[in-house]
Amino acid sequence: MELTRLIVKGGVISPGELREVVNIASEEGLDSISFGSRQDIIFPKGFKSLDKTTLGKHHFVYPDQKSGNNIVSSYVSTDIFRNTNWLTGNRFLYILEEFKEQPKLKVNITDPKQQLVPLFTGHLNFIASEHEDYWYLYIRLPKWEKIEVYPVLVYSWDLAKIYYEIEKISDEDAADIELLFTLVSEALDTNNRTIDKPLNIPFYPFPYYEGMNRMGIDQYWLGLYWRNNLYDLDFLKEMCDLCFECKIGKICITPWKSFIIKGIPKDRKLEWEKFLGKRGINVRHSLLELNWHLPVAMEWALNLKTFLVRTLDQFDISTYGLNFGISEYNRDGHYFTSIVIEKNELPTALESIKIRDTYNVLFAKNFDPNTREYIVHSQDIDKLELPTILIELSRKYFEELGNTTSETTEKQQKKEKPQQDIYQCQECLTLYNSEYGDETQGIPKGLLFENLPETYCCSLCEAPKSNFRILETVEN
Fold first, then answer.
1. Domain 405-470, what fold?
2. Which fold has domain 1-119+201-285?
């Protein structure tokens, strides 16, 4: 399929830029555009080569070009879904602005607390830490077997610098992580920070990202999804004009072939609803419809999704929190959905014979794609068997939901207990351990020190409660 792509850095485009893109597409005789899984814009019918004056500052990648990868970012999620406190929309925009040259490698810049944008599908994956302005960096260069963690946290204003240095090194040599770190450290003066704890990626159900939704007190955000991923140019033109009128500066593309408009003023909400109604736009698809990731412009994948959604709908199956991917067989690929349906390749010798396609079904460990571990559930199965398998897996998901979390929490509580609950009298060094309580004063086992009455005193020297200090214990 001959597809032309337009790079949209971080999936963020202004209404003015989108309007220019729509005009270029119209002049090329197209009536629609699509969105790609790396938050880029795809021209479904290809382009004739454009001259420099038409292009302006837009960065097109033609079918015969290898250069140019889009930077994926979770800017789209800020202010509307869960997020790391310090990571604001403006912070994302400043960081994206630092990437002046078009990256050759895939870069992801994401918040680990959101679920809309995948964390690990890039060659370089910058993931926000709890420390303000510091990021984990997970690297898997094209020739590397597995993903590696960069040994320090990276400062916000060094992200682009470090990326370009790694791009340069990877051009010359397939270095390992230690050599890469040494070479970058020698070449650049950066403001790194020690990794004091491993990255924690909380698992939350996949969010509903469509329709008109409240954002703060006096604004709304609108998510738009079209089933066939062919967005009508006339509709987009009118929409850009409406954005101008409402002083909306940014439109955000998601990796799910949809887009989100944030900051619709409360007093213009009705106008937007009328605009959508007049155009007959459906903005309340079921989650069963929205949580699929498909390759662009592949009719077989869209047909398979339609068949599966209709069948699952008839069985009234809930897939809340899950998401699904359809892909051609590609074990080197980086999936980012809970469940993946792979279409097997036909052996070359059998290509001329009309035989039915077969599929494999994989699911992520704990149904959390961020684990990056996929388990093969079924192999070489027929299309008609797929709905039964998806129903079985969705039931398995709901049965297991919460189990791993509660086990982890229990373990953490057991680990943390000695540190939290042992206090020492500063006068005579007597210990109060909530695990044992204090029988001499009628204090039962399990009562935390902070919950002791203010009249509590040391059982040995009778020093007051205020004389006790938490005991910093060292774990084995």
1. Rubrerythrin, domain 2 (2.20.28)
2. Sulfite Reductase Hemoprotein; domain 2 (3.90.480)
**Structural domain spans, the chain:** 1-119+201-285, 289-401, 405-470
DSSP state, 130?
A: S
Strand partners, 232: 32
Report the distance separating Cα 95 and Cα 93, nearest Å: 5
Contacts of 232 (CB under 8 A, 6+ apart): 31, 32
Tokens of 343: 């279409």
Report, in angstroms and rounded to the nearest whole number, the Rg of the chain calculated over CA atoms: 27
Sequence-distant (6+) residues with CB within 8 A of 428 are 458, 460, 461, 463
Residue 309: pLDDT over 70: yes
pLDDT tens-digit readout, 168-196 = 988 776 678 999 999 999 999 999 999 99
Q: What is the pLDDT of residues 371-419, one digit of tens each?
A: 888 889 988 889 889 999 998 898 888 887 766 543 443 444 444 344 4
- Under 8 Å between Cβ of 18 and 38: no
Domain 289-401 part of CATH 2.40.10: no
d(CA 294, CA 303): 11
Could you give the CA distance from residue 277 to residue 429 in angstroms, rounded to a whole number?
73
Strand partners, 386: none
Q: Going by C-beta distance under 8 Å and a sequence separation of 6 or more, which residues neighbour residue 299?
A: none
CB within 8 A of 207, min separation 6: which ones?
81, 114, 115, 116
Q: What is the Cα–Cα distance from 331 to 122, expressed in whole angstroms?
A: 16
Which secondary-structure segment (H or E) carries 165?
Answer: helix 159-172
* Bridge partners, 471 (sequence order): none
Which residues face 339 on adjacent strands? 324, 363
The pTM (predicted TM-score) of the whole model is 0.78
Residue 447 has pLDDT above 70, yes or no: yes
Residues in contact with 199: Cβ distance below 8 Å, sequence separation at least 6, in sequence order:
112, 127, 129, 136, 149
> What are the φ/ψ torsions at residue 341 (nearest 5 degrees)?
-110, 115
